[in-house]
Fold this protein.
Amino acid sequence: LIQLEEECYEYHSSMTHCWEELIQCNMDILSYFNNAIRDHNHSIPTKTCPALILPQKPLFSNFKDHMML
């Protein structure tokens, strides 16, 4: 019975440590993305879309020409 209690304690300690590491990892990732979003938002003027999202030229520039054929 004592050996079983020791094994349960070791398992519980191990799992607690793993969960704490996972929570810290998630917090670090969240912090990274929050900083990236904040930096991105501060680097663009208000009410404009970032240039990387918008295509440099229209994707369907010849759309009407192709539909008329």
Observations:
- The helical segments are 2-43, 63-68.
- The first helix runs from residue 2 to 43.
- The mean pLDDT is 76.
- The two ends are 84 Å apart (CA to CA).
